[in-house]
Amino acid sequence: MKEFQQSDALARLPEQFFAKLVKKLYTYQQQGHDLINLGQGNPDQPTPDHIVKSLQKAAENPVNHKYSPFQGFDHLKEAVATYYKREYNVDVDPSTEVALLFGSKAGLVELSQCFLNEGDVALVPDPGYPDYWSGVALANGVMEPLPLLEENGFLPNYDMLDQETLQKAKLMFLNYPNNPTSAVANESFFKETIALAEQEDICVVHDFAYGAIGFDGDKPLSFLQVPGAKNVGVEIYTMSKTYNMAGWRIAFAVGNPSVVKALELIQDHYYVSLFGAVQDAAATALLDSQQCVEDLKETYEKRRNLLVTGLQEAGYEITPCKGSFFMWLKVPDGYTSESFADELLDKVGLFVAPGVGFGEYGEFYVRIGLNNSEEHLREAVHRFKRFKKDQ
Ligand SMILES: Cc1ncc(COP(=O)(O)O)c(C=O)c1O
């Protein structure tokens, strides 16, 4: 069969590290190994019932059988503004400061296409969520890592950036609560970010995917809560994690009107907006009782406590995470992140994500997901203990 040459843009795409891992996982599963998957970021629980019912009802409405308005329904953008006011006391103009996205992954890739010309720099967290890299590669931009080091609380240290990099930087991606390190941001860090972005003309994209998942009574800070944030960027808010709606593909960019406008422009060319019934159900999720979110947080916090206690008993060094549904575990001496992950899989059937898959500075850590039942996590602790004993 004739094989067509792919474009240069596709050739620039980074290797999908995790696709390789998932393949290995499936091979093991097919061989009948008894595995516990702590390596992936897929919420394990169903979407709350009232949201599913809202979708069912909306699917019967013929209005939703037509093309929806190009940039989405106003009522959903208004729901987003209500949500930000209620949850964060942030004023958002629904007509100019909200763009609907087909999941945040799509929006994050589009943003690089919106703002980078060839050779422009995008500052990306390292370790970080790999889809930032994909967008930068497609746009033919240049990635400069923002190392997230444990001694800085996994926050970037902007003093490490040289003047030339800062001058070329057009975009900066941040993500707190952070995937994979689980770190949370504080107000002074966001203030420092805003000052830098103002000074260097950098558009800040704060990926708030785990915004609803904070522990020990602390609510993660929205970037938009900090004065001046809207002037320098947007926050990306997905429904995937807060409401277990990962399969529904819906998220928002909220903030700076010129960024919202650029996203809506590119999307006018890629798509017509999302299925109207998904938009209706998303509005239900944002506006109705938030008890389901409280319950979800409680579930993850219980799981975190179980895992932290168990791992500490087993002799692993681990600090309780403050947000997200991940834990970031330093690998024991003598291992790399991949060799530790490989041995865990081979010897005790535990699948974890090697930190190096999230960037160079993720080396010597592995990411462990809390998106497994308590029963599975108890068994995982048991296996971690067994592994440690046999080491
Ligand atoms: C940090 C981060 N950003 C974005 C996403 C993608 O979310 P969505 O389902 O909205 O595409 C994920 C998913 O795992 C994530 O961890």
Structure description:
The chain is of the alpha/beta class and 391 residues long. The protein has 15 helices and 12 strands. The strands form 3 sheets. It has a 7-stranded mixed sheet, sandwiched between helices. It has a 3-stranded antiparallel sheet with strand order 9-12-11. A two-stranded parallel sheet has the order 1-10. The longest helix has 23 residues.
Helices, strands, pairings?
Layout: H1 8-12, H2 17-30, E1 36-37, H3 49-59, H4 74-88, E2 98-101, H5 104-115, E3 121-126, H6 131-138, E4 142-147, H7 163-168, E5 169-174, H8 187-200, E6 203-207, H9 229-232, E7 233-238, H10 239-242, E8 251-255, H11 257-270, H12 276-287, H13 291-313, E9 326-330, H14 337-348, E10 350-351, E11 353-354, E12 365-369, H15 374-390
Parallel strand pairs: 1-10, 3-4, 3-5, 5-6, 6-7
Antiparallel strand pairs: 2-8, 7-8, 9-12, 11-12
Helix pairs in contact: 3-12, 4-12, 5-6, 5-11, 13-15
